[in-house]
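Archive entry. Fields below.
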Amino acid sequence: MTDNLNKTSTLVDKLIRPELKELKPYESARRLFSMSGSDDTNTVWLNANENPYSPNVSADPSLYNRYPDFQPEPLINAYSQYAAVKPEQVLATRGADEGIELLIRTFCSPGQNIIICPPTYGMYAISAETANVNVTKVPLLPSFQLDVNSILNQVDNAQIVFICSPNNPTGDVINRNDLVSVLEATKGHAIVVADEAYIEFSTEDTVTELMNSYPNLVVLRTLSKAFALAGLRCGFTLASEAIINAMKKVIAPYPIPAPVAQMATQALSEEGLLWMRRCVNELNNRRDAFIEKAKTWRFANEVYPSKTNFVLMKLSETLDANKVMTLFTEQQILLRNQSKQLMLNNTIRVTIGSEEEMAAVENVFNLIEQKLD
Ligand SMILES: *Cc1c(COP(=O)(O)O)cnc(C)c1O
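PREDICTED_STRUCTURE:
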């Protein structure tokens, strides 16, 4: 058995693409904790920006013997109506993550470049690296806004610029003027991707209408966050018809399973949207209350403003983020340590959960606060 495994490893070592050898897979919240033996039912999951509630959607089992439509029309129509774009400008994908991967595989050859602006979402770099595409990092300014001049200095070399707004894990929205400056300078040269995974928590900040003036703008969306359907794996790329058609050359022939299409379409119905908007209202209010509370804790050196369903906190130097993570894990509460990210030394990200979950979180933080006395 071990012998066979060893022989296979040697074979894999010989054949694997060299650029994959050193690559570490994305440490998704699920992967990080799936080994820890935590039991799902009692665990408070506040590490992946999921919605704590579940929408009322279901699929009809009688349809599974047939292959699904390539791009199910009811789903595409529902999303185009919701996002106020034409159906030709919508591509349904297996999560926004697949949109990221397809953009890179469609527009970047091995050895070409993308620009990312860290601290930001980790999958842009991982998708690029697995495709042997180089990642140019142009860090955000200390204000967590774009360093527009540096981006413009480096963009001649890049096929795609990824901009996350609202940004994960900082929680703030990128200034529209800065985005427009980047779009203006890259018109005809590069694609600018605005990742709007959290836009439902701050609808007025969407940039989809800029697609009319800037055919190089791509907007990524998902049902995983505000719509509470992370387990469904359904996201959308919004772009000019030419960009969508190019991506259709690369995407799998049956990307959206039939039950996923059915349930996603229900989530986008009038009733589904009402449900989602009620969740967003509730979570936004709870987030604002949590931020006010967190600002009173002396160990919280900084509580960053948020237009999302999560809050980033910088801890005082005397309190180690790893230690805080352990204290929470002992209470079966899972948060996300963001300390490895550029500029985010000793920070923790807290997803906004249900009222009970947030009470449990505040309890643990209150205990930490009392120990300071
Ligand atoms: C969660 C997230 C995604 C991925 O969403 P899926 O649709 O679940 O793949 C993409 N971008 C950002 C910024 C995210 O936080």
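CURATOR_NOTE: The radius of gyration is 21 Å.
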